[in-house]
Amino acid sequence: MSITDFGRAPCGRAVERIEISGGGLTAAFLTWGATLQDLRLAGTPFPLVLGSDRFAPYLDSLLYSGALVGRFSNRLGGGRFAIDGRTYQTDRNSLGRHTLHGGQEGSGQMLWRIEDHGPDRLTLVLVVPDGHMGFPGDLEVRAHISLPGEGTLALSVVANCNRPTPCSFAQHSYFNLDDSAEITGHQLQIHAGHYLPVDTDLIPTGEIADVTGTRFDFRTARAVGHSGYDHNFCTSFARGELRPVAELSSPASGLHLTVETTEPGLQFYDGAHLDIREGLNGRLHGSKSGIALEAQAWPDAPNFPGAPETILRPGTPLRQELRYVFRRD
User: Fold this and answer.
1) Of the listed 172, 186, 231, 285, which one is catalytic?
2) Residue-number span of the structural domain to which 107 is assigned
3) Which residue, 88, 95, 122, 90, is CA-closest to 106?
4) pTM for this predicted structure
5) What is the model's pLDDT at position 122?
6) Catalytic residue among 182, 247, 263, 294
7) Residue 302 maps to which CATH number?
8) So what's the pLDDT on residue 211?
């Protein structure tokens, strides 16, 4: 376990890098955005996630990559929502019309504080003030990170507020399980019979569509391919128990990843617009060089009749669980 200086945030404060190891994995996190900067599996000669050895790309081509995004992950249509009859306007950082990942200064672009750490564990804390990016209420969130064994990276997010507020966090890493230039040959299975169609701004239309007979049917594992995806898959209709929601594998390397979560949605983005000019070990990463599988609430849920509840209220903490489990054939 080690803590080193990784650079300076735009405010001038130090960004720290914390490396932990356990169960065959070595993971490095940044205090900037609670970002997973690097992830290695023993016996594998390449990183499992896209990242950089320098801080500057995380403000540019690696924006959101590896970060814990919130206070409301994904999109809010029009940057608006209503709670108990009151309408709120949030920062419209997406196309100048919508809110994406909590706004321009969401949790993925803020400095977290190290509260606890050990050889195989880490706890990061963030306090977001009332009115930040237009959201109501003071919000305190803790990210409990551990490597409990057998190729597993575990993340537990606990958030508390003093006013009702939309709240959903998502771990936003891009995975590549064979170090290839594209992930189109990776095999993907998603345990979801429905997905959310979107408009040209990637805002859900309000329809909950059956995947049967469409390119969105990943109930049986198949290649990611070139069809183009940046959509929420409805893995359930309410937050529930920790369960597997997706499996990703590479026939080339024999590596497998299982995503387990308590959350009702999984945003599958195939990385079509990636353009990372300074990745780990000096690598360049272009279109479809990594795949994001973001366990979260449904996008635009506060404005979506029938979506699982996402309003966090005082006295009832939000608890999100996530596990990435890696294995080799």
Assistant:
1) 172
2) 2-328
3) 90
4) 0.96
5) 98
6) 294
7) 2.70.98.10
8) 98
